[in-house]
Design goal:
104 residues; two-stranded parallel ribbon; 4 helices; mainly alpha; 2 strands
């Protein structure tokens, strides 16, 4: 589950855990809902340049309801991360969660 606005509190984590849900969050926010495409590309470039990300993973947040994201940025994002040696996969696989990605 992705909590709105990424607001993760200890209370929310405890309640969701008690009700069988797992929380996933992003570490690269494109802010696509408020910025033009050039800002989104900066976010991706920064995430893939980060030495901590090399050979690891990052989860980016995009909103498919945004026209620029769905029609323009998604193509760039796929091509760009593949060119940097990253793999594209479902979030659960990215996090190594083999027990059920959203529910316990």
């Amino acid at each position: 589950m992705r909590l709105p606005y990424g607001n993760i509190s200890s209370e929310a984590l405890e309640w969701l855990g008690a009700h069988g849900s797992k929380v996933k969050n992003w570490n690269a926010d494109t802010n696509d809902w408020q910025h033009p495409q050039d800002f989104m590309t900066k976010t991706y470039r920064a995430a893939t340049r980060d030495p901590a990300a090399h050979g690891k993973s990052f989860i980016s947040l995009q909103h498919d309801a945004e026209q620029g994201t769905s029609q323009v940025f998604s193509k760039f994002a796929i091509e760009y991360v593949l060119s940097k040696g990253f793999n594209i996969m479902p979030v659960g696989e990215c996090l190594g969660d083999t027990s059920g990605w959203y529910r316990k």
